[in-house]
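Students often ask why we bother encoding 3D structure as a string. The short answer is that it lets us treat folding as translation between two languages. Here is a chain of 166 residues written in the first language.
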Amino acid sequence: MSAVKIKGLKSFFSMFLLLIFFSCENKNTQKQNTKEEKIESISVSHIGGRNGFYEIIKIRRDSLFFESGTSKPAKNTNWKNAVNISSWDALTSSFKLKNLDSIRSSPSIQHLDGIDETFIIKTNKKSHIYVNAYNDVNYYQFENFKQKLEKILSQKQPATVKKPQP
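And here it is in the second language, the structure alphabet:
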């Protein structure tokens, strides 16, 4: 008769542990879902065209990295600079995070000696990648971002660096 009591306690204890495990898991997932989505980094690249032109700009909350050049002839220019919080806020305000999932890319045009424009927007929840999204209704966000970025680049870019033409 004592074996029946022990089996009953074992099954009760096992179900009790499972119940605790599942209740704790639900609380953790609710906390993660309530965390606000924020942009962590933005990358813009223009790659292709004649002579293997490339331009890569990576922006984070505190820094900006710029690299450009051609592969034939081999020329490369790069520099880094700090970004202040007001510039970062101005750049990230260009994007409406709720619209990012609906933006669609277009086919590559590199094989036609064209230049592909690629945006990579990383948030604390996911990454969004767009190639040649010119034809999308929400492209105005990228245009707005590029105008603000151009102002920042003109202020930050060293005087000795000249941007190569594609």
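Translate back mentally: The first helix runs from residue 2 to 34. Keep this in mind for the problem set.
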